Amino acid sequence: MQRKEMVKDEQILIVGAGISGLSTALGLHRLGIRSLVLESSDSLRITGFALTMWTNAWRALDALGIGEYLRTKSVQIHGFQIFSPDSSPPSSENTPQAEVDLGNTEIRCVKRKDLLETLEKELPKGTIRYSSKLVSIEQSDNFKLVHLADGSVIKTKVLIGCDGINSMVAKWLGLQNPVNVGRSAIRGFLSYPNGHGLEAKFHAYFGGGVRYGFLPCDDKSIYWFCTFTPSIFNYDENEQNPLKMKQFVLSNIQNAPKRVSDIVERTELDCISYSPLKFRSPWNILLGHIVHDNVCVVGDAFHPMTPDIGQGGCSALEDSVVLARCLAETLLTKTSGNNKEDGEYVKMEGGLQKYAKERRWRSFSLISTAYIVGMIQESNGKVISFLRKSFLSKYTVGILMRMADFDCGKLKIS
After folding, report:
1. Mind telling me which Pfam families this protein's record contains (predicted)?
2. CA dihedral over 312, 185, 73, 96, signed as positive or negative
């Protein structure tokens, strides 16, 4: 009896108030459907510095109704400059216009803080419940009982896991744990109070065992990254000293122009981070349970991938729009028959299965492409290095552009 008094009913419960969780909640809200978002921390968790948002992400952001505002907080990237690690002049240069028509191409680097705060502000008050850590999930007929660390229980018809790379919801679905690919990333963010004066281009150094790049978020800030294979450089993966991270990056871009190395040199130590790179096996995406018993996963909980094509956050936004639309199509139609509860359950399951069908192959393609592109761009092998200097750098940028030329559709129901 005491347990029943503690149970709260929710139609749709979302675990995780990151990009995928908040954008899914916003997509549902735009279609008139309420959801509750659980967040384990006591406030909006702003981890990471910035994200490269490609054409597909802007289409999703426009569908969510926040694209125009976020455009005012970022600058349009006009082209790429690909450098060889053993020479300072550009080895090739390519612009988005060379791959995709100008009207369909949009690349900007958005501060993660700006994106999350914008999503939060667009949601109704009370949508996010902070200090709510998921402990376990229990089946109860057509419902899920979600047990939280504070002892409370929430009963829900639909459970959506947006709880990141170590997702408990993904584990409940039986998906395999993400795999460490043997590579790592050091990332940094630098602010210039008086402006940086750099061109709005994506500058990248590929080869020699590293991928280093930087691009502006706006006129006063730069986001940079360096991915590498720790075993090649005898780098201690447990090293958490940002000074040593900075020194490592500088030692591997020492042939770059001074204005390039200055970006890393001037970065404050508390604006440098390190993380090992992981992905979910593409075959697990194809053969595993993305959806089961009205439970599904979104974003990194679904398809964690390496950052080599910049599609982690972009694809999470795609997921959110597609999922909101698929659920709305079922929830906003009347249920016929005597047992409306069972009928509604079947309809929602159908909506989630439609979401899985739309997202499965797209996610498989993104994960596989990112892994291969990273290998090509970072390799220090003689054959790959020669081919990269000859044509592969330009070719891989073209792949990035083609993968970004995707439309998740509008938030409309037929």
Report:
1. FAD_binding_3
2. negative
